[in-house]
């Protein structure tokens, strides 16, 4: 090198620089601008940039933060943590002042600073859906902010596609907020028929949340299925026990069938109040009711058949790891217990202990019995008869009347409540373990209260041989709540 002239040395240095630039460009060139974070498609750009996109490690949104803000000044100094802290404080301040526009913008800035900090996505999604939404008076406005919270979580799944718990959280919010909140009657309808007429004038659902126009519980199940697939294929969930985590799709089906059953009963009552069949002949009315009953039975039994199969055949046959890494499954026969004990290299007693411990922990047999019971014809008939009784009561069909022979016959409402209570007595006889199920207790007590009220209206007392009388007396402490429910259901009657 010392024998080279100054000009020659400069050319050599330039050539080395060019040679070194080749691997730098090959490895470090940025991705194309049209690539969305978290996508798995092939992208143009350097190898390192492509790997960042493939493994969801890239962060290219810092330029979207307000350049004049104090947070941006800290970012330029490399103090990303303190910058995020300042934004969190600002978000709290904007929420307290009910400045929703700035709150949303600040939250967006936080996730641009820390797109892979999972707890930010979980907390702010929950905050928008549960806290901010309740600050509004109109149900449609509350619905909008619940949607914003869930959309925020969905964005988090795009940016963190290997974080299984976020997908589970989206499914949980779909069911819990839309299906269990005080506004669920409206939220479930809005989920299919969005009230934002400017964006959805045709009465469709929001495509960002519900592109196929399905029930909220079924959309939640889809997200639960995705999270279970990720859990089983290389991205195990963190922070939840697997045997609890994997039951979410089955429980979503349980919630769906129960909600549809309640919706159908409410629709019957609403239509019944405006559909007075008292002018029809007994034969014509019976024909209409038989058709309604057929539809009820087919839809409910079919739904519970699906829920039972999901619980036993899918969730029940999943393989889990118990104490000391012993494999087990919940829906396990005696022969399968022996086979699993042999596979695990443990005694049959140890295998049975691990299995029974987890069966009890997730209350597997209770939910299996409940799904089996709900698809039983006695149970379906009981729910239907009680719903019929409520419709008849709302139409005022509660007076005893003489038949053509001059004999006093009980009212139509009383007959249907008696039918329902008799069927429920058979249900409890066939499924005694469900006698402590709160939903069954409340349904029986409420039906008995309706029946008692109708008989008092006709100056009659309940018969002493009423088969469910001991059951009703055993739960007498619930009577004040039952009376409140009765009053709430009949505010508009008569």
Can you summarize the main beta sheet?
2 strands, antiparallel
Specify Rg, calculated over alpha carbons: 31 Å
The percent of residues in helical segments reads 55-70%
Order of helices and strands: HHHHHHHHHHHHHEEHHHHEEHHHH
- What structural class do helix, strand and pairing data support? mainly alpha
Principal-axis shape equals elongated
Q: How much of the residues is beta strand, in percent?
A: under 5%
Tally of separate helices: 21
Mean pLDDT: 83
Q: Segments where pLDDT lies below 50 for 5+ residues?
A: 33-43, 60-65
**How far is the N terminus from the C terminus?**
107 Å
Characterization of the model:
There is one protein chain. The protein is mainly α. Among the domains are: 6-54, no CATH class; 300-489, no CATH class. The chain is built from 21 helices and 4 strands. The protein has a two-stranded antiparallel ribbon with strand order 1-2. The protein has a two-stranded antiparallel ribbon with strand order 3-4. α6 packs parallel to α8 (164-180).
Short précis:
With 494 residues, the chain is mainly alpha-helical. The chain has 21 helices and four strands. Among the domains are: 6-54, no CATH class; 300-489, no CATH class.
List key phrases describing it:
mainly alpha; about 0% strand; about 500 residues
């Amino acid at each position: 090198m010392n024998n080279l002239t100054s000009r020659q040395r400069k050319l050599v240095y330039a050539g080395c620089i060019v040679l070194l630039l080749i691997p730098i460009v090959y490895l470090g060139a940025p991705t194309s601008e049209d690539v969305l974070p978290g996508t798995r498609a092939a992208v143009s750009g350097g190898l390192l940039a492509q790997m960042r996109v493939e493994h969801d490690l890239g962060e290219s949104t810092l330029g979207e933060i307000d350049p004049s803000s104090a947070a941006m000044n800290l970012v330029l100094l490399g103090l990303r943590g303190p910058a995020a802290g300042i934004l969190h404080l600002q978000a709290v301040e904007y929420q307290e002042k009910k400045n929703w526009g700035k709150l949303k913008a600040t939250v967006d800035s936080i996730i641009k600073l820390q797109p892979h900090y999972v707890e930010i996505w979980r907390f702010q999604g929950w905050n928008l859906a549960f806290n901010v939404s309740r600050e509004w008076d109109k149900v449609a406005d509350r619905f909008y902010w619940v949607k914003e919270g869930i959309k925020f979580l969905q964005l988090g799944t795009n940016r963190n596609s290997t974080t299984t718990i976020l997908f589970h959280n989206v499914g949980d919010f779909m069911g819990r907020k839309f299906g269990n909140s005080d506004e669920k009657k409206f939220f479930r309808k809005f989920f299919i028929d969005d009230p934002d007429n400017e964006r959805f004038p045709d009465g469709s659902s929001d495509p960002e949340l519900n592109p196929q126009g399905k029930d909220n519980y079924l959309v939640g199940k889809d997200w639960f299925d995705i999270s279970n697939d990720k859990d089983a294929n290389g991205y195990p969930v963190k922070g939840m026990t697997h045997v609890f985590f994997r039951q979410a799709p089955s429980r979503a089906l349980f919630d769906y069938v129960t909600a549809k059953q309640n919706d159908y009963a409410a629709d019957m009552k609403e239509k019944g109040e405006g559909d007075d069949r008292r002018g029809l002949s007994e034969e014509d009315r019976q024909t209409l009711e038989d058709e309604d009953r057929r539809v009820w039975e087919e839809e409910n039994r079919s739904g519970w058949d699906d829920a039972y199969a999901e619980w036993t055949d899918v969730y029940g046959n999943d393989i889990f790891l118990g104490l000391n890494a012993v494999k087990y499954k919940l829906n396990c026969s005696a022969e399968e217990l022996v086979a699993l004990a042999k596979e695990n290299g443990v005694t049959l007693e140890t295998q049975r202990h691990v299995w029974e411990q987890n069966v009890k922990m997730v209350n597997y047999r209770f939910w299996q019995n409940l799904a089996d019971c709900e698809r039983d014809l006695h149970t379906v008939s009981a729910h239907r008869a009680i719903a019929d009784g409520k419709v008849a009561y709302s139409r005022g069909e509660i007076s005893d009347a003489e038949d053509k022979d001059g004999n006093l016959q009980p009212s139509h409402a009383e007959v249907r409540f008696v039918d329902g209570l008799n069927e429920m007595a058979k249900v409890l006889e066939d499924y005694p373990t469900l006698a402590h199920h709160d939903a069954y207790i409340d349904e029986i007590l409420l039906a008995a209260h309706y029946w008692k009220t109708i008989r008092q209206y006709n100056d009659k007392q309940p018969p002493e041989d009423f088969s469910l009388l001991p059951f009703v007396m055993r739960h007498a402490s619930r009577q004040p709540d039952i009376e409140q429910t009765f009053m709430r259901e009949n505010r508009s009657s008569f």
